[in-house]
Design goal:
Length: 180
């Protein structure tokens, strides 16, 4: 796993040991950032279920202005911290807590890009969208990027709208924007 483009291009990232964390593969990450393109520059990023920090770190490498990474696993937190230190990242904040607790406690936060990459088949993607609603945490031109298993569906996404999807092996990527 590595940073694909930008200031940290080519830098290797540490992975969380074991099989409980599933980092976004470089091929999928490349596809995500090819869709996002200029939306990354100067973006405020939220990376829920951060795992290794892979997605937020790629966004920062490509010009995002700041990122909040949320992770409740102590092992994953250590890996994220090591990755932040290895890259010398100063404009990221690791929140060592449950993603839903963070959203409940920080209702004033609004983001340009929100990455949601929870464990598969637990309903956490749709639950995350509900937590992002009241108040809405996405800017009007912002994008939510959700990663699910290919056989999972997002059915209740209003007031967000699915603008695009992509399938890569057993993974499905959803791109959502506000419709209000």
């Amino acid at each position: 796993m590595r940073i694909i483009a930008g200031d940290y291009r080519g830098q290797r990232l540490k992975a969380v040991p074991g099989i409980n964390t599933r980092p976004t593969a470089d091929k999928i990450k490349g596809a995500i950032f090819n869709v996002l393109r200029e939306k990354v520059v100067d973006a405020k990023v939220l990376d829920m279920f951060s795992g290794t920090g892979n997605l937020a770190l790629e966004a920062l490498s490509r010009g995002a202005k700041e990122a909040i990474l949320i992770e409740k696993s102590r092992i994953a937190q250590r890996v994220i911290q090591e990755n932040l230190e290895h890259l010398g990242v100063q404009n990221a904040k690791l929140m060592e807590m449950d993603a839903f607790d963070y959203l409940a406690r920080h209702q004033e936060e609004i983001f340009d890009l929100i990455f949601i990459d929870p464990p598969y088949h637990l309903g956490l993607a749709e639950k995350s969208l509900k937590y992002l609603l009241d108040p809405c945490r996405l800017t009007y031109s912002g994008v939510i990027i959700v990663e699910t298993a290919k056989d999972e569906n997002l059915t209740n996404v209003a007031p967000f709208e699915i603008r695009k999807t992509g399938e890569y092996g057993d993974t499905k990527i959803w791109y959502l924007q506000r419709i209000d």
